[in-house]
């Protein structure tokens, strides 16, 4: 019988962006087994309603639970914004963590002035999850939130650096750099795609603006919770990583090269259908 601590951590995202969270988990928890589920059939989530995203997230968690995971990380910012709390209530026996809370914690911790910017997808910005989470932790904060959905396409196409990318990033970030509330000292990368554009964003914003990558802070939260719940894998052997997708495994492997630091073999990606995992 497999010891519960040796079971994998389930990582769920709407597509490939959550691989940046997977990178952070691999670095912080190299001996943990990881099972990544990308809902590539229904990506992007950023333009979907909250009800649809919550339903999709529930189906993903049910699929991961069937695979016997010990912990679930919602790597998608949009799903984290609307689904973490209801899912945590629905599955109290399993720790479920999203990326919004850790990102908010980190931004409040590093900002000296309380002037914080958030860039994310349209859905995440409109839901105001980051704004609410930051204000809960730091009521004196002044927050500027900006939808930068074009960054998702840049990241997936491998356009990460260079003069043209910097021009596009500069144009998209203009409202947050030059608006009436300009002067932020911290910028939250509120979409899992955005860390691959970190260099271009940093160059445009300037060295005085601290960039918060919620993937890194989420990995540290997961590490602490594994210890607190006695779920940490004590094995000294490097953990295995497995992949599930709901559509287009070949495209997933191709696009994943822009996000994941390890090579993914096409045979290592399993195609599954999660839409039959309906809430009873």
Protein model, in words:
There is one protein chain. The chain is 43% helix and 16% strand. A six-stranded parallel β-sheet has the order 4-3-1-2-9-10, with helices on both faces. Strands 6-5-7-8 form a four-stranded parallel β-sheet, sandwiched between helices. The protein contains eleven helices and ten strands. The relative contact order is 0.20. The protein folds into two domains: 4-98 and 216-271, Rossmann fold, CATH 3.40.50; 101-214, Rossmann fold, CATH 3.40.50. The chain is an alpha/beta fold. The model has no long low-confidence stretch (mean pLDDT 92). Its EC number is 5.1.1.3.
List keywords for this structure.
single chain, 280 residues, alpha/beta, Rossmann fold, 2 domains, 6-stranded parallel β-sheet, 11 helices, 43% helix, globular
């Amino acid at each position: 019988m497999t010891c519960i601590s040796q079971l994998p951590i389930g990582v769920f995202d709407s597509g490939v962006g959550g691989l940046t969270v997977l990178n952070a988990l691999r670095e912080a928890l190299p001996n943990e087994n990881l099972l990544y589920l990308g809902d590539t059939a229904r990506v992007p989530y950023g333009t979907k309603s909250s009800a649809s995203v919550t339903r999709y997230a529930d189906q993903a968690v049910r699929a991961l639970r069937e695979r016997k995971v010990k912990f679930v990380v919602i790597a998608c910012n949009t799903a984290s914004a609307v689904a973490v709390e209801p899912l945590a209530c629905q599955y109290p026996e399993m720790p479920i963590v999203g990326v919004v809370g850790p990102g908010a914690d980190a931004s409040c911790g590093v900002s000296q002035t309380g002037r914080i910017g958030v860039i994310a997808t349209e859905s995440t910005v409109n839901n105001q999850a980051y704004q609410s989470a930051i204000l809960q932790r730091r009521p004196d904060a002044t927050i500027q939130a900006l939808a930068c959905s074009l960054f998702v396409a840049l990241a997936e196409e491998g356009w990460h650096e260079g003069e043209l990318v910097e021009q596009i990033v500069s144009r998209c970030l203009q409202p947050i750099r030059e608006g009436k509330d300009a002067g932020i000292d911290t910028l939250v990368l509120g979409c899992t795609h955005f860390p691959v554009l970190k260099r271009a964003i940093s160059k445009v914003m300037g060295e005085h603006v601290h960039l918060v990558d919620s993937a890194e802070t989420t990995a540290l939260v997961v590490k602490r919770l594994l210890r607190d719940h006695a779920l940490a894998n004590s094995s000294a052997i490097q953990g295995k990583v497995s992949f599930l997708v709901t559509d287009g495994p070949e495209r997933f492997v191709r696009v994943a090269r822009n996000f994941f630091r390890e090579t993914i073999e096409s045979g290592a990606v399993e195609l599954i259908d999660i839409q039959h995992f309906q809430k009873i």
